[in-house]
Structure formats: structure tokens, C-alpha cells
Amino acid sequence: MRAYTFSRPQSVRDALASAGEDTAYLAGGTTLVDLMKLNVMAPAHVLDINRLPLRGIRRDRNGVHIGALEPMSDVAAHRIVRESYPVIAQALELSASGQLRNMASIGGNLLQRTRCGYFRDISTPCNKREPGSGCPALNGVNRGHAVLGASDACVATHPSDLAVALVALGTQVHLASAQAARTLPLDNFYELPGTTPHIENVLRPGELITGITVPPGPWAKRSLYLKIRDRQSYEFALASAAVALELDGRTIKQARVAVGGVATKPWRLPAVERALVGRRATEETFEAAARHATDGARTLAYNKFKPALLRRTLVRALVELSERR
């Protein structure tokens, strides 16, 4: 770990005024500290933001508002979340160990870095870590890598389970900087790698996530997160699906679908949603819609199984959700 300076601002204004281009915000530290120990991230200055007033879970006509510093475990256990947005609680509980969920914050979860082994090994090239150095995953160990949204510069998957659920629900993310505050759809917050995989999101230097708002909807209560992985705990997804349905009897009135473990960002599937709306909630409908889930997929030597796995994961999630009362 390289040397850095450290401070603990007492207000959001102070934090934003102190932040610069080579500054990192520290909340739970479950990603940042690991990467600093590996010398993957080496900020010159670290700002501990845990004393900032960025907590709380409340609901109004615009939806549920969650502060960026709320711990994952507290959000997953909250009555409003469990009753009205079960997909969020499920995604959080499947994300990590209990110890990590107690420490990790909501804002930090949305900003966690990829688990690609080449990114975390500073002895290997990585365009995400060192632009222009290359992507050894293209022809190397790539079983867990992306088949959607990838480029010749990067095929790393996005690691957040929570982000997949939030993108499916149309969540808004709130940002603040010393200059202004802004709000945008979480789906627009993440960037595709293209030729600049080191730019993972639209955060500006010194900008801070202050919270999120998940909108209300008749489909939110009927929602589910399914995660397929090599083992049942402490493992990242090979494929995952966040699904939400509004049903009129057995007819699908509205659908929200996003997937993870297969793409370079949380991946919304509007073509699948369109194929579901207006049709009967049957396995045949789900299988037909799931064929659109892998439109544009590009496989590598060791992840050719992922498109089929994704389609099966999506069908299973939709069947299970549609059968719930």
C-alpha cells in the first residue's frame, strides 16, 4: 500500500470541498481497502465520510429513498424494502457474507470494482487499470467474463448484485459535487467499456453518491432476484436475473427485467420486457421472451455456456415469480 493522507470531514460541504481528482471516499472500505492493499488503487488522499448525514430509509409518493451510507444489512432487513421491494432485499442478502454486509454501504456497493483477476493482479496488463496496456482476458482465463456489452479493450463483468435489481426497478441515483447536485437514472450512471474501460461511470472528479430513490410501482412487490454461481455463498454470479411483474390474472401488464454476471454493466433487457407484456404468464411465454436476452452476445473460449445459462436463469426466475401469490 502506498502512502496517502487522511481526513474525516464533518459535513457534505466540507467533504466535497476537500475532494480532488486523486481523492477516494471511504465508507465501509470493503472494496477500496482491498484494492489499496493490492496497489490497484493508490489515491493520494482518503476522505472518511462515515460521519456525514447520508443515512436513512424513508418512503413518500416518489418511492423509497435510501441514503448512500446505509449498510447493506440494514437495507435488506428494513420492513419497507422487504415488503415493497423484495428483489432489493434478496439481491443484498445474496451479495456477500454477513460480516461484509454489515460494513458495506449502498453507495459503495454501486461503485465496487470488477472481480476480474487480471484487474486485481498488477503484474499483468489491464486496460481498466492501465489504459492501453491490453486485455489478457480476451485470450486467457475468461470463464467468468462478460458476453454482453464487452469490447476488444475489456470483457470484465460488473460485480454488483444490488445494481442489477435497482436498474430493473428504474432507480434514480443522486450525486453531489462542490459545484452542483444532480440526479440521473442508475442505468445511465454506468458506462460501457468501449475503448475507455477505465471510465466505469459518469462520476466527475470529487463527485459523491448521496443516495438513491427507487420508484413505486404495482410490479415492485412481485419481484425476485435469482443468482446462479459456483457455490452457494461468498461467490459472484455466473448469471443472475432481477425480475418484476404486474399481473392481471395470468396476463402480464408490466415487466421489469435486468441481468447480471454476464455483462460489463447491470444489463436491462427491454426486448425481453416487450416480449412479456400482454401475454399469458406461462413457461412458454417466458422461454420465447428469454430468447431475446442474449441478442448481441459475444462469447469467449471458456464462457460459451453463458448465453444458455442466462436464458435458463431468466426463465426460472420468471416461472418462480409468476407462481407466487
Set out the fold topology:
Layout: E1 5-7, H1 12-18, E2 23-26, H2 32-37, E3 45-48, E4 57-60, E5 63-67, H3 72-77, H4 79-84, H5 86-93, H6 98-103, H7 106-110, H8 117-120, H9 161-168, E6 172-176, E7 181-185, H10 186-189, E8 208-214, E9 223-228, E10 239-248, E11 251-260, E12 267-268, H11 270-276, H12 283-290, H13 306-322
Parallel strand pairs: 1-3, 2-3
Antiparallel strand pairs: 4-5, 5-8, 6-7, 6-8, 9-10, 10-11, 11-12
Helix pairs in contact: 5-9, 11-12, 12-13
Question: How many DSSP E strands?
Answer: 12
Distance between the termini: 52 Å
Oligomer: single chain
Major sheet: size, sense and barrel closure?
Answer: 5 strands, antiparallel
Q: What general outline do the C-alpha atoms trace?
A: globular
How many helices? 13
Percent helix, as a range, is 25-40%
CATH topology of the domain at 223-322: Enolase-like, domain 1
SS content category? alpha+beta
GO molecular function: FAD binding; oxidoreductase activity
Keywords: Oxidoreductase
InterPro entries: CO_DH_flav_C, CO_DH_flav_C_dom_sf, Diverse_Substr_Oxidored, FAD-bd_PCMH, FAD-bd_PCMH-like_sf, FAD-bd_PCMH_sub1, FAD-bd_PCMH_sub2, Mopterin_DH_FAD-bd
Protein name: Xanthine dehydrogenase YagS FAD-binding subunit
